[in-house]
C-alpha cells in the first residue's frame, strides 16, 4: 500500500498539470476575506502533523536535477547570498524565518534535525533552475535544530508568482548526514505567508509583479494550501517592511513514517511539461 507521502507526491504532480490557482491568509487574525484563514486561528489550530506537500520542480535536493545539499557551505543561517563559486545576492525586504520542529513520536523538540529551506527570490525565480540564476544557489540552506527544535534563517521575503500563494519550501531530515539523499526526508512541506505581510511587502520597490499576481489568488484555491486553508502551515509574522519581518511556524513531524522523497521526480528542470516561458516557475 502506498504511504500517504507517496500518494501526495503523485497528487502534487497532477495538480501542476491541472494548473490550479493559489492564495494566502492574514497575519492579523481579522482579515478572512478571499478565502483567507486568520493567522491567530492557524496558530491555535496547529496541533496536528504538518501536511506532506510536493517539493515542487525546483527542490535542488537531487530529486529533480541539481543537488545543493552535497555542497560544502550549505549548512548556514544566512541564505541571502550564493556560496561556493557563485557570488550573487538576493535583494528584497528582510525576512527571518523561524521554524520549530517537533517529533510526534517522542512528543518532544526534534533536536539535531537538519532542516533544508528554499524559496524564490523577489523576482519569482528559483536559483539553480530559473533563467538568469541557474549559476546561483542563493535562498537555499540547511540549519540543525537546537535543543528546542528551533532553526533560524536570515533571508528576503519571496515573491508571489503566477498561480501560487507566497510560500517557503522546507524538508526535515533526521540528522546532518542524511541531507544528501532526498529519500531520507521525514517531512516535506511548505510555509504559507500571511496576507497582511504580503500586501505590505509587495507595495515596496521591486515587488510590482507580486501585487498583480497576489490579486489573482486565494488561500482556499491554492493547489497546496487549499485543502484546509493552510491551517497548519500559515506562518505568524512580526515586524514591518522597513526593518523586515520574522515569520514563525511550528511544524510537527512523525518520524515513524517511512522517509520518502518530496521532489517532483523525473522530467528535468521545470518539472513535468517543461519550464514555463522565460523560465518563470510553474504553479508549485
From TrEMBL:
Which positions carry the signal peptide feature in this UniProt record?
1-22
Please provide the record's keywords in A-Z order. Answer: Dioxygenase, Oxidoreductase, Signal
Q: Which PROSITE patterns match?
A: PROKAR_LIPOPROTEIN, TAT
Q: Which SUPFAM superfamilies match?
A: Aromatic compound dioxygenase
Disordered, as annotated region: 29-71, 254-284
Q: Where is the composition biased (Low complexity)?
A: 29-48
The UniProt transmembrane annotation reads none
Identify the InterPro entries for this entry.
Intradiol_dOase_C, Intradiol_dOase_core, TAT_signal
MF terms from GO for this chain are:
ferric iron binding; oxidoreductase activity, acting on single donors with incorporation of molecular oxygen, incorporation of two atoms of oxygen
- Bias category Gly residues: which stretches? 262-273
Can you give the residue ranges of the Intradiol ring-cleavage dioxygenases domain?
87-162
Q: Where is the composition biased (Pro residues)?
A: 274-284
Enumerate the Pfam families for this protein: Dioxygenase_C
Report the protein name in the record. Intradiol ring-cleavage dioxygenase
Give the source species: Dactylosporangium aurantiacum
Amino acid at each position: 500500500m502506498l504511504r500517504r507521502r507517496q500518494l501526495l507526491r503523485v497528487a502534487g504532480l497532477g495538480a501542476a498539470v491541472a494548473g490550479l490557482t493559489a492564495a494566502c491568509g492574514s497575519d492579523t487574525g481579522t482579515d478572512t476575506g478571499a478565502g483567507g484563514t486568520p493567522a491567530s486561528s492557524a496558530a491555535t489550530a496547529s496541533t496536528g502533523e504538518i501536511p506532506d506537500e510536493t517539493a515542487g520542480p525546483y527542490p535542488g535536493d537531487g530529486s529533480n536535477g541539481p543537488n545543493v545539499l552535497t555542497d560544502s557551505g550549505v549548512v548556514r543561517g544566512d541564505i541571502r547570498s550564493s556560496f561556493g563559486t557563485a557570488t550573487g545576492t538576493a535583494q528584497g525586504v528582510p525576512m527571518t524565518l523561524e521554524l520549530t520542529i517537533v517529533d510526534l513520536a517522542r512528543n518532544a523538540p526534534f533536536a539535531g534535525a537538519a532542516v533544508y529551506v528554499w524559496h524564490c527570490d523577489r523576482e519569482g525565480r528559483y536559483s539553480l533552475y530559473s533563467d538568469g540564476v541557474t549559476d546561483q544557489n542563493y535562498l537555499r540552506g540547511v540549519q540543525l535544530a537546537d535543543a528546542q527544535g528551533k532553526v533560524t534563517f536570515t533571508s528576503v521575503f519571496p515573491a508571489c508568482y503566477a498561480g501560487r500563494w507566497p510560500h517557503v519550501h522546507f524538508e526535515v531530515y533526521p540528522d546532518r548526514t542524511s541531507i544528501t539523499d532526498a529519500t531520507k526526508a521525514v517531512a516535506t512541506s511548505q510555509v504559507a505567508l500571511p496576507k497582511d505581510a504580503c500586501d505590505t511587502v509587495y507595495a515596496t520597490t521591486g515587488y510590482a509583479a507580486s501585487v498583480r499576481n497576489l490579486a489573482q489568488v486565494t488561500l482556499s484555491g491554492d493547489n497546496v494550501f487549499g485543502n484546509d486553508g493552510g491551517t497548519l502551515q500559515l506562518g505568524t509574522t512580526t515586524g514591518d517592511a522597513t526593518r523586515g519581518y520574522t515569520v514563525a511556524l511550528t511544524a510537527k513531524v512523525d518520524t515513524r513514517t517511512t522517509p520518502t522523497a518530496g521532489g517532483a521526480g523525473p522530467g528535468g528542470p521545470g518539472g513535468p511539461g517543461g519550464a514555463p516561458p522565460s523560465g518563470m516557475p510553474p504553479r508549485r
